[in-house]
């Protein structure tokens, strides 16, 4: 049986929610974690990371003696990504030198104009440079963990400590990005490729960034990429959580009860009945299926998952993901999509501009149109027949995965474009009159923020906020 009163209820089961819960237990707080099936992050957000995020989580694990995170790499598998824009393909996720060479060869106007990266790497000890970069990312992540807030980070000091390859790539990215207003072919290529890169790494469809975000992007582009065995890591984190005194329950919340804009009770959809929490933490993407909502309202893209049965021989590496777009898709309701082949199934994720009341069937024509035109660019078939066809679709569903659409705002400061300060995110109760509905003691951690830059920012925000809980 669950305790009827608790300091914290955490909604959403994932390794990040267990990390928050364990941190609260270490502060002698009582915690109940609910696996609420309407609250999820989505596969890409929670199950993909680079060496940078892995190093940050390992630092947290070492600092808090959380054994699964101390050995985070045993849950990771190498997972390279191919970014496709028109006829240009950029493959990242290998070791730092491989990634740097790929960037320089495929985007020479960015990485070979001012900083001759290929020339720099010529005749160098590749293993040594790879080790220098990963060692630096380890130190960088450890410093971020102890400083907690990225706003307290002295970027100039961190850059001064960076290996030359990192600094060269960072300067190339910032220099090119500062001049994107010029509509040359090379500028447009970089703008659109940057759009895909920030979408993948930061879960935000915006090319403008702060200096710190560009630096993080540099490290992520140079880092090895991984897929995470999330179910195994969550299982091991759950064991630590329960061993430290936390309580777990798989149940939806049937009714939310607030008193004076604070949580008074959550009635569970099971025999446990109502629980009285001091505070509530929500860890997921959006709250669209709940009686509470977030402000400010943001424009975002939601993931439509489509599974197709392959009826012809297809020459495509199993498990290799392609993130695709072109000049006609940019700025539309479906600006890009991701495709990966697994055995005789093609998994496609289309990112669609969210609209209230959206259903999978609304997008069927768009799905066929995009896939029939674009898949031939990355797939070689034995058959000349066009597909997909209706009978090839095994399933399609809108998932909880979201990418935030950015504001096209430039504010020139120092070294690069700075995004404007966006203020705090607030949680509100639908049952109260507008203006009186802001809730206290209800916190949200996830990608639904203009200032978000993916898993990294969510982990850093939790690390910062838990000090004040």
* Computed CA radius of gyration, to the nearest angstrom: 23 Å
Overall pLDDT score: 87
Runs in which pLDDT lies below 50 for 5 or more consecutive residues are 408-422
Structural class: alpha/beta
Q: Name the beta content range.
A: 25-35%
How many distinct beta strands? 24
State the end-to-end CA separation: 25 Å
Helical amount: 25-40%
For the sheet with most strands, the description reads: 8 strands, mixed
Number of helices: 15
Tell the overall outline: globular
With strands numbered from the N-terminus, the spatial order across the biggest sheet is: 6-5-16-17-18-14-20-7
Q: How would you describe what is shown here?
A:
The chain has 15 helices and 24 strands. It has 469 residues and is α/β, with parallel strands linked by helices. The longest helix is centred in the N-terminal third of the chain and has 22 residues, at 126-147. The chain is globular and about 65 Å long.
